[in-house]
Specification:
The complex is a heterodimer of chains A (338) and B (439).
Chain A: H1 2-34, H2 38-48, H3 52-69, H4 71-80, H5 82-101, H6 108-138, H7 158-182, H8 185-216, H9 220-225, H10 231-248, H11 252-274, E1 277-279, E2 289-290, H12 291-294, H13 298-325
Antiparallel strand pairs in A: 1-2
Chain B: H1 3-42, H2 45-79, H3 81-115, H4 122-151, E1 156-159, E2 162-165, H5 168-173, H6 175-205, H7 210-245, H8 247-253, E3 260-261, E4 265-272, E5 277-285, H9 288-294, E6 300-301, H10 315-342, H11 350-358, H12 361-376, E7 381-383, E8 387-388, H13 398-429
Antiparallel strand pairs in B: 1-2, 3-6, 4-5, 7-8
Helix pairs in contact in B: 1-2, 1-4, 1-6, 1-13, 2-3, 2-13, 3-4, 4-6, 6-7, 6-11, 6-12, 7-10, 8-10, 10-12
Classes of the chains: A mainly alpha (338), B mainly alpha (439).
């Protein structure tokens, strides 16, 4: 029971991370297409300035909880995905630094350098998280000793890449909607029409992904055993349709929540399908990392649960306050700071 | 070159680099919080300008600190998977608690502070920097509890082929952790203090914004003096504790080979590990080692020869860093005491100011030496007495680690140089003009 509770929390933490960092990574990747001049770029930076850092802590927490609640999974997963993860970390470094460094020197080349970092550093994690999670859903070649029998290129299989494309699309739509919320005028129009343009592509890829999941993974087994669970992928689909509906009505906050629902449900769709495994082995199901063979002791899980029950609601509380507090649109006058 | 050595090098590069920025975050957030509190209570706009000016430097530094921290957390899994799976029950939970209780608070409220100058009341704005300061020190506390557990494991049992938590309170409150926390936090506050004092000295010497920097200096000197004095006292308790917890580290940092009662201390020794002795011993001070380690002139201090050769740390990497660190700590007290007496006549003390501007790097050297002693002095253990470093590395390919190690060195060097350049630029430029500070 304790293990299952932590399994759910583990899934929820990753889902919330993707929902929150998703829009700033997606927006960073879209910057070269959306921004026509330096003011546009500055507005894009400012639109996520107060949020990206707090969002990224969800990743640290998701990683930390994997370590704390399922140490063996953490060990096997992170060492197996060594190169992919390191690439994500390097990318996240170069996407974070521009926020503080870009405005320090008034020089176009300097700014161009950091803008390039932001774009690469936003696009790569979006893609690689998708590739990584699709591979987790599918299972990776780990042997009886939890040793990975593959390379970085093992992960770049069709289903993994499809997952990558799906994440990039989910995040860019999410990001375009965010910019639509935060801006007015031409930039706003470009952002909302970008969301509209990307949406049909996302819909197609999402459907292909759901179908491919039936062929490439065993995720649907849990759903067939307990059909009630189909509510989760259904919510993802509903969220996706609502996203388009609200974008069409220019109700961008609602669209953002719908898009968030899609990302959260899509992540949980995979996680619930994995249960009780956290990392299936593609060599032999018996080698899989599950909540039974990789969880921490009951005492640790209980203490952690106590900490989570007190602090996570608190975090959600003050982060929500920050989102509400900085909900205003970013305009040219607004850019005075920095 | 094997994956073990490369992984150790990589972790060393990543932690050393990370800890150049973290102590500034820890100390400067507190100093800024104090400045802003003075502003809120007195209404003196100068203190608001101060908070803004030092805040600019703080934010540049903070960005680098935060991005280099994430790679550390993930490296336990990527490079030290066997360690992670063996001790994750205890170590992992401390990291997760750190993220949940501190990182969120720190990262959320630094944004509130940076973007909230015009949107928050002065009081609330001041509260946000206090939250950042408290959260960053709190995160240091959690990670140091985790490190202390590696130095001196308590509250666990070996079950199911791994170390499992049996007593959380013991892990969190053990004396080793308490002393380490006091030691490292004080060191960070001293470092940030010298950083501020040095930049003030630089500007006062060049007669740039003299009044502003004298005022800043006066805030920082009190702060730094308190922690510099405290550190000497705490450091002594720390060394004494090692006798019971890590006798090999104590012996290595004193280059003490033979178990002796009434052990003397030498002003300078040159270790000769091969022959298990010192090739040079100069300046014998009788009884002092026994006195320091046991509080008794005749107390017995264990020597390295008592331990198997493969359980001894590298003596050179413990002995010299320890001496450099302690000497610098003494110098910090001296410099801050002098600074305290000169605080009202700084402009007429150019020699002191010159020394202070060149003193900026010294605390960085001290903390780096301190970590070198702490971490290499624990070797060959990753968890003292429980698990060896050589048993804890991931089953990963040499080429993988070699690639990322080069990546770390290149990326971090560029990042470090750029941050250094930008901080120096802001520091030289000085605060915004008064008319502008309402912005």
């Amino acid at each position: 029971m304790l293990e299952t509770t932590w399994f759910i929390l583990w899934g929820v933490l990753w889902a919330v991370y993707f929902m929150l960092d998703g829009f700033d990574l997606g927006l960073g990747a879209l910057m070269p297409i959306l921004a026509k001049n330096n003011t546009d770029r500055k507005i894009i930076y400012s639109s996520v300035g107060p949020f990206w850092d707090g969002n990224e802590v969800w990743l640290i927490t998701a990683g930390g909880v994997t370590f704390a609640a399922f140490p063996t999974t953490y060990a096997v997963l992170f060492s197996s995905l060594y190169s992919a993860l390191m690439l994500i970390l390097f990318a996240l470094i170069i996407r974070a630094i521009p926020f503080e460094f870009r405005e320090q020197i008034d020089n176009p080349t300097w700014r161009k350098l950091w803008d390039t970092c932001l774009v690469i550093g936003s696009f790569l994690p979006a893609l690689l998280f998708g590739v990584a999670f699709a591979n987790i859903f599918k299972g990776i070649p780990i042997d009886a000793n939890g040793i990975y029998q593959g390379t970085l290129f093992t992960l770049l299989n069709p289903y993994g890449l499809l997952g990558g494309v799906l994440f990039v699309l989910l995040f860019t739509v999410h990001g375009a909607i965010w910019l639509s919320i935060k801006t007015e005028g031409e930039l706003h129009d470009r952002a909302s029409s970008m969301a509209k343009k990307l949406w049909p592509v996302l819909l197609v890829v999402a459907v292909v992904f759901l179908v491919a999941t039936g062929f490439s993974t065993k995720l649907y087994n849990n759903y067939l055993q307990m059909p009630l669970l189909f509510v989760i992928p259904l919510l993802a689909v509903v969220g996706l349709l609502m996203t388009r509906l609200f974008v069409g009505k220019a109700a961008f906050w609602k669209a953002w929540f719908a898009s968030s629902l899609t990302i959260v449900s899509a992540t949980l769709f995979g996680v619930v399908g994995l249960y009780p495994a956290l990392l299936p082995s593609s060599l032999n199901p018996a080698y899989s990392m599950t909540i039974y063979n990789s969880a921490s002791s009951p005492l640790t899980l209980k203490i952690m649960l106590g900490v989570a029950l007190v602090f996570v609601p608190l975090v959600i509380g003050y982060q929500t306050w920050v989102y509400v507090f900085f909900r205003h649109k970013v305009t040219e006058e607004e850019l005075a700071y920095h | 070159m094997d994956a073990l050595l490369l992984s150790r090098l990589q972790f060393a590069v990543a932690t050393y680099f990370h800890f150049l920025f973290v102590p500034i975050t820890l100390g400067l957030s507190l100093i800024i919080a104090i400045m802003e509190t003075i502003y809120v209570r007195s209404g003196d706009e100068d203190y608001k300008r101060m908070a803004k000016f030092w805040g600019k430097i703080f934010l540049i530094n903070f960005a680098v600190g935060i991005v280099t921290g994430i790679t550390l957390e993930f490296q336990f899994g990527t490079n030290w998977s066997r360690y992670s799976s063996y001790v994750g029950d205890i170590f992992g939970s401390l990291l997760a608690i750190e993220a949940t209780t501190s990182f969120f608070l720190e990262s959320t409220f630094i944004a509130v502070w940076a973007f909230g100058w015009n949107r928050l009341s002065p009081k609330m704005h001041c509260v946000s920097i206090w939250l950042v300061a408290i959260a960053s020190s709190l995160s240091a506390i959690w990670i140091l509890i985790a490190n202390s557990w590696m130095q001196h494991p308590v509250g666990y049992a070996i079950r199911n082929g791994r170390a499992e938590l049996t007593d959380f309170i013991a892990v969190v409150t053990q004396k080793f952790a308490v002393l380490t926390i006091l030691h490292v936090l004080s060191a960070a506050y001293i470092l940030a203090g010298f950083f501020v004092l040095g930049i003030c000295a630089y500007n006062i010497l060049r007669k740039q914004h003299t009044e502003f920097f004298i005022k800043s200096f006066r805030v920082a000197i009190v702060f730094t003096l308190i922690f510099a004095c405290f550190e000497i006292f705490e450091g002594h308790l720390h060394g004494e504790l090692l006798k019971h917890t890590q006798p090999t580290k104590l012996a290595a940092m004193e280059s003490h080979w033979k178990t002796t009662s009434s052990a003397p201390m030498y002003l300078l020794s040159i270790p000769d590990p091969k022959n298990e002795r010192n090739s040079v011993e100069i300046g014998k001070v009788p009884y002092v080692l026994s006195l320091l380690a046991t509080h008794s002139l005749t107390g017995e201090v264990q020597g390295l020869r008592d331990f198997p050769k493969d359980e001894r740390p590298n003596v050179w990497l413990a002995y010299f860093p320890f001496r450099i660190m302690v000497s610098l700590a003494g110098l910090f007290v001296l410099l801050t005491v002098v600074g305290w007496f000169k605080r009202n006549k700084l402009e007429s003390s150019p020699r002191y100011l010159k020394i202070m501007q060149f003193a900026i790097p010294l605390p960085f050297i001290a903390t780096t030496m301190g970590w070198t002693l702490t971490e290499t002095g624990r070797q060959p253990w990753i968890v003292y007495g429980l698990m060896k470093t050589s048993e804890s590395v991931s089953p990963i390919a040499v080429s993988q680690v070699a690639t990322t190690l080069v990546g770390f060195i290149v990326l971090y060097s560029l990042l470090g140089l750029t941050a250094f350049y930008l901080i120096a630029k802001v520091a030289r430029k000085g605060p915004e003009p008064i008319a502008d500070s309402s912005k």
